[in-house]
Amino acid sequence: MPDMESQNSLNQKWYAVHTRSRHEFQVYERLQLKGVEAFLPTVEKVRKWKDRKKLIAFPLFPGYLFVHISKSSQGLLSVLKVKGVSRMLCTIPGEPDPIPDDQILALQKLIENKEALDPYPYLIEGQKVRIVKGPLSGVEGILVEKIDKHILVLSVDVLRQGVALTINASDVEKI
Hints:
By secondary structure, the protein is an alpha+beta fold. The chain has helices at about 5-10, 25-35, 75-80, 100-115; strands at about 15-20, 35-40, 40-50, 55-60, 65-70, 85-90, 90, 95, 100, 120, 125-130, 140-145, 150-155, 160-165, 170-175. The relative contact order is 0.17.
């Protein structure tokens, strides 16, 4: 018989958390201190001042981060009680919408790869593709054509947002 902790980890799902404006990093740290598994996708951008330039991490989805918890009232409260958390994203009030594991894994793979990512509007229509070559092999998304380049868009349904990555058309296959 599995122990209680492994039983709980089987019931855990990813959920999107909306934070107060510009509180993503503080909320992420507070969740980590409470032992809650959290994921804050970030991108690095160069910021210029009169006297210097500096590479600074920014949230990929401003105002949002992801938590991996059970849907129990104890799991939900452990997140909602954290200072800086506004709410969890729900379509039905009080019922947070789980995010498919494959969407979070694909996002983590994109962030780890350190490619130049750009926030991209959520897309419903378009060609669904899978990358078949290179370090991002297996990542799925929607292919969008622009003049002289192709862009893979990984959509996060619950947030109605996505990220864009420039790729070679020969590196993808139709799903």
